[in-house]
């Protein structure tokens, strides 16, 4: 569905600017990524208006995306799957209440997963040279470890969920 919409928009865009050096395929890919992000944010924020957890959702959306950029992770087969799974995951995290012990444990688990596994799949989604991967790993670990100062359950669970996508991404690639 998202891919078809992106292809239609890309085709229209290319017809409007036929001399643009980018192909319809490149436009389609870029537009599908933007639509994917838009639908995840819109659906998750829309649901949060009904659950009253908009602050937590904003924290989860930003923290998950930041960590994902630094560490990579598993990708689903389609953009629609990504939208549905991400929306359910983020909404679920926002509704899940954990105490301080679980917050610390989830944060520590995320740091350890990143230390041992990150990055996963970065080379397929980024043009960043591999010589920078150790710095990205360190930045990711520091980002997650910052939650030891905040002790935010939403951050802890968001970081842990993103870290688990590293494990799943590693398993799928094996």
TrEMBL record:
The keyword Cell membrane applies. InterPro entries: AgrB. The chain crosses the membrane at residues 26-47, 78-98, 104-123, 135-161. Keywords: Cell membrane, Hydrolase, Membrane, Protease, Quorum sensing, Transmembrane, Transmembrane helix. It comes from the Bacteria. This is Accessory regulator AgrB. It comes from Paenibacillus helianthi.
